[in-house]
């Protein structure tokens, strides 16, 4: 009988793990039909889903919203030209995936579509009124210390920059303006794998975290809140209530205050978390009013107006400010502490002036970023996205390590890739070794079975040795027992 032994073996290079950014459709698509039906009990969620549907899908919904019987699928198909059959099929798939409508049959057996009763009822409430009023819409006396839009924008970005500073600042819980990050936000970053905790207890940014920093603010906030919603059950909060309130805030008016008096205990807790993340402003925890910020209003709005408050934010992701020389010197024309900290993830910073930071790409600085999970392609992509316009006018040939023409010097691109390749020569895969076969036929039989179920990692026919994955060991072991007894 072969002798299985625990082992580690080398295989090909690891595949990069990319940040999975879901929009509202992709998020709801992963929910079960039962969960979707519970979510559609909230009119705000129904309205938000309707707003995010493709235009053709919205037309289908609004045309059958007031029809009290299933509509033949052939009739729905006739509403559009055959030239747009592809768009029609896509809209049909979206409505089906989200459980907005479902297949039905009418007398005669013709296939038809009918809206989900729950969705239909609550979308009518959202569009026409009725139902229970939103608790946050209670009447309030005028605020003697009312906050204007400019204040709310500054507050929102101050809180959000604090989260970003923490990610690039090696667990510095304070941003440059003294704002501190909440422990709750840290737990979300760890849960989302945007950061990871090292053996010494410190937190470092991951490759997904680096990709997260490259997103625009609206996408960052939405992804962050999706990760929060994944932990609702652990916090004793109801997913439907949290998502409903989040969408209520997205339909609110910027600069207007809303009441917190009618909120349940769970929603008051949720409100405090939103306050920590910068989605709402509240002077005190027990204050009876709060102000939604632009971060909350923009959360799912495709046509949202981004927050641009001052020169620092105007220089954020889209501003091109980096110059790179062939001697590996990097010049960043910015006074943004966040952008400088981000640059410091993979460069060795040398000098800091009011509007200029000088650094250098070194083997140690790049390898430090690689150890944190950042890839060479991400570093190169970041430098290209933020390259100064003067670099864009210089055309370099495609480097040996990169497939497209880059505005960066080829020596820089190649060297960053080479530093990464130094670390990627081997990876380790845990597995189980089988050897000491009594006959060549036994070895070939077991090897072919392991290969057929895709658990074979390595084999050597001459020495009658094979390695299977740890997860496939049980299946291979059971097959061998059956084979030894002559039952296969």
TrEMBL record:
Top-level taxonomic group: Eukaryota
Tagged with keyword DNA damage: yes
Keywords assigned by UniProt, alphabetized: DNA damage, DNA repair, Nucleus, Transcription, Transcription regulation
Pfam families per record: Tfb2 (PF03849), Tfb2_C (PF18307)
GO terms of molecular function: ATPase activator activity; double-stranded DNA binding
BP GO terms, sorted: nucleotide-excision repair; transcription by RNA polymerase II
GO cellular component: transcription factor TFIIH core complex; transcription factor TFIIH holo complex
Entry's localization field: Nucleus
Presence of the UniProt keyword Transmembrane helix in the record: no
Domain Transcription factor Tfb2 C-terminal: 414-481
Subunit structure: Component of the 7-subunit TFIIH core complex composed of XPB/ERCC3, XPD/ERCC2, GTF2H1, GTF2H2, GTF2H3, GTF2H4 and GTF2H5, which is active in NER. The core complex associates with the 3-subunit CDK-activating kinase (CAK) module composed of CCNH/cyclin H, CDK7 and MNAT1 to form the 10-subunit holoenzyme (holo-TFIIH) active in transcription.
Function recorded in the entry: Component of the general transcription and DNA repair factor IIH (TFIIH) core complex which is involved in general and transcription-coupled nucleotide excision repair (NER) of damaged DNA.
Family listed: Belongs to the TFB2 family.
Protein name listed in UniProt: General transcription factor IIH subunit 4
The organism of origin for this protein: Lutzomyia longipalpis (Sand fly)
